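Researcher: Can you fold this with nicotinamide-adenine-dinucleotide in place?
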Amino acid sequence: MRILITGGAGFIGSNFCYYLKKKRPALQQVVLDKLTYCGNLDNLKDLRGARGFRFIRGDIADRKSVVQAMRGVEMVMHFAAESFVDRSLHQPVDFVRSNVQGTQVLLDEARRVGVKKFVQVSTDEVYGSLGARGKFTENSPLQPSSPYSASKAASDLLALSYYRSYGLPVVVTRCSNNYGPYQFPEKLIPLMISNALEGRDLPVYGKGLNVRDWIYVQDHCSALEAVLRKGKPGEVYNIGGDAEEKNIDVVRSIIKILDVSPQLIKYLPDSIRPGHDFRYAISHAKLTRQTGWQPSVSFREGIEKTVVWYLDNQPWWQKIKKRAAFKAFYKKHYKTR
Ligand code: NAD
Ligand code: TYD
């Protein structure tokens, strides 16, 4: 059996490759990844050269690359995407190309080779923002706020249309905010950990009162594996960590673990992220009912493990933060808005 993992050199994709190698060692893995600014072969260093593992550098929006990657494939786990809300506000066109057009090319080729399962890895952000109460269910309306979440909602609908129109066995998953090893240091948690270690400001949008549900990346991986085995074609499954936290509390936890000064916190006007969703909270009752899956790592445990990983792997993120392109985006986003 061979599985195609798109975006396998990114954060969740690389964690999933390791997870699957351990859990299902006989499964052949083919990774297709464009290696955008976020893709990183260092993330896969312990898998490259391993038996049954193949890496192809290519763009999911480029049919030739997809045709090559799809040979002999029976299952697809589709992670490849532009994934950062703030970048989507600066450069929406990249999100439409990779997330919408890329998904469409992939769906076409998956259909052509007749895959047995296509998992569209998506996000709870497609549901938009919640007030203080309630949780997203699979029946919540799609009300995306950012070009990122709108492009993911569009790709989810395209994927489901391939089930309805052509019978392609598509399953859509929508997960809350992930954290853990190999997350690119522009997202909240790795940015705060690495900035704190460098003695830099910790930029908090607004008053830090926005709420996210946090899931340790390995719990997301185990949920995806459960969906790969037992998810029903044409269905949507929400995945969450049962761990709602205000941003400011996340930042304070990191400050406490690292024992750095709270004076590093720098509050920025919330207008830095127009359309900033206030709260995400998700019910994973459907997935739990159908597969028995549950998140297993508490936020307290996960954040400690994550801080330790970033402490133990400083060359990994230092190399990224030294790049001219990283510095240029940082300056443009934080200093000029
Ligand atoms: P990431 O940005 O770390 O990784 C994305 C990977 O996709 C990178 O390796 C990049 O090189 C690759 N890629 C981008 N465009 C490509 C293209 N056109 N062709 C081939 N490869 C391309 O993202 P992530 O955080 O690992 O997220 C992976 C997926 O999970 C995304 O689809 C995202 O929407 C979804 N998701 C993420 C979260 C989260 O909290 N990070 C939560 C829910 C869902
Ligand atoms: P992020 O990691 O970008 O994930 P998402 O927006 O997809 O949920 O941001 C998580 C939260 O942290 C979000 O409410 C925005 C906030 N945030 C900051 O306060 N400062 C920052 O520098 C970043 C990147 C995010």
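Model: Folded with nicotinamide-adenine-dinucleotide in place. Residues 85, 125, 177, 187-188, 191, 203-205, 210, 212, 247 surround thymidine-5'-diphosphate (ligand 2) (CB under 6 Å).
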